[in-house]
Every structure is written in C-alpha cells, then in structure tokens.
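Service request form, structural biology core

Requester: graduate student, group of Dr. S.
Request type: structure prediction, single chain
Budget code: on file
Notes: please return the result as structure tokens.

Sequence provided:
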Amino acid sequence: MVRWVPMESNPDVWNKFLKEMGVVSGWEFTDVYGLVPELLMMVPQPVAAVILLYPISENTEKLGVEKLAENEEVSDKVFFMKQTVGNACGTVGILHSLLNNSDVISVGDTLNKFKADCSSLDPMERARLLESSEVIATKHAAAASSGQTAAPSADEKVNLHFVAFVSVDGSLYELDGRKERAVNWGPCQGDELLTQAAQACQGYMACDPEEMRFTVVALSKVD
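Core staff response, request fulfilled:
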C-alpha cells in the first residue's frame, strides 16, 4: 500500500494545502470549539463542509455500519471516492469537502481537472487516480510537514481518522473513504449543515465518552 505522512488536524495546515492546490481565497478551514449552539454561532457562515477527526474504535465502527444500513439512498450528485493511500484520510476529507462544493468554491485548475477525470470512474478507480497523482501527493506532503507538531513517519500506525460531512441535494452525507459508499444521515439543507453535522459528530463522540481525541473543523466563507 502507498502511504503518505499523516496530516495534522490544524486549520493553518489545511489552509496552506488549499492555497497550494490553487483554491481561490475566501474559503478557509476554521476550528469548531464546541458543538453547543452558543459555540456553533462563532463559526463563520456559510459553511460548506465539516470535517471530524475521531479515534477508530469498536464502537465507532459499529455506528458506521448501522448508519450505512439505515439509509442506502445516495444522490448521484454526491462526489465520493474510496481511500487506498494510507494516512491520506485528511486529504481525502478535504477533497470530498471541496469537490462537493465546486459549484460555489473556485477549487482551481488541478482539482477541476481531477474531478473531471473522475467523472466516469467508480469510487475505487477515483482512489487509484489519487494514488497516482504526484501533484496532490506533493502538496499533501508539503502541508503535512508544516504542522505545529513533528509529523510522524508514513509507516507509523495511526488510528485517528478524518471524515467529511456535506449537504448535497437536500441530505447530509458522511464521506469516508473506508466505507463502501457515502452515508446518508437524513434531510439537510445547506444552511442547516453546521447544526446537522454537529449532531452527527456528537453521535460519534457518544460512542466513546471518555475519549478526548475528537476535533471538528468547518470549511467556511470568510470574506
């Protein structure tokens, strides 16, 4: 398996990746400091995507299986890809966030071409296309090395995982390259994304209430 260096859950690192990829300024990743309404109000609006970092456990895996089984309906407007590159879940989460919002976010020539090249591919073939992309791999490596903490080696085992939440075609979708398809969490309009995604994040947190290694980041319009 091809393995990349894990990317730190740090909006500054991710925003550097956006800039390197040619995403037009105006949209940035920002920390979500809490999931109660008062703290959600501090997040710049509108929000295009929410990314959750969580530790994989038996309980979170069980929740993932349950949610997949609850609702098998997935809009054909959802961009979804599998993950075949080890430690690339941060970048896959960012790609899911951007490419499901490329109608409102100018994602740049590289990602526009990547999405176009993916248009006739299934989720696994899209993953292979990412695996072969030297441009995206190089930008990922540059961002991963710019974090506040020392980046672990590509071979180091990491049990923390990123998933993205987006609103597409009136539903909230969880996009996780480890799963067989996008996960439909139920009705969600664009302006409800932050609150609905916060509820989904709380579902994962409730799986392991003693666990502290949860992080939530939003992709917001900042000007």
